[in-house]
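R.M. (postdoc): so does anyone remember the format we settled on? I'll just put the structure tokens first.
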């Protein structure tokens, strides 16, 4: 068990509990975090769970797959080097306290 900090586009923050093995998208949805639309339910086909991972946490994540990179190209907000689809980021103990910012639009 750990925690993820979700930062809204307006700067407001919400820290929620996360369980190892859950995707960050599942963590957000289970805790009713606004802004994570996740239209496809985590099937890597919609880019509506786009988040910006805080730079200090990016190095703890595995590389993006080619499919994730392709989907990020069609995200509503411009992707950056810190962009991830939250459905593709699996929470684990080393990510306890990870900070992700939710874009203004999905």
């Amino acid at each position: 068990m750990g925690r993820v900090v979700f930062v809204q586009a307006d700067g407001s923050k919400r820290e929620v509990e996360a369980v190892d093995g859950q995707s960050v998208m599942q963590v957000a949805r289970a805790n009713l975090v606004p802004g994570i639309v996740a239209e496809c339910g985590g099937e890597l086909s919609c880019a509506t769970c786009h988040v910006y991972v805080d730079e200090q946490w990016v190095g703890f994540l595995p590389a993006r797959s080619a499919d994730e990179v392709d989907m990020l190209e069609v995200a509503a907000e411009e992707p950056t080097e810190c962009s991830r689809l939250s459905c593709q980021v699996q929470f684990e103990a080393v990510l306890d306290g990870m900070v992700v910012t939710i874009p203004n639009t999905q």
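R.M.: ...and that's the designed sequence above, right after the tokens. Also worth knowing: Helices lie at 24-30, 55-58, 66-72. The chain has one domain: 2-101.
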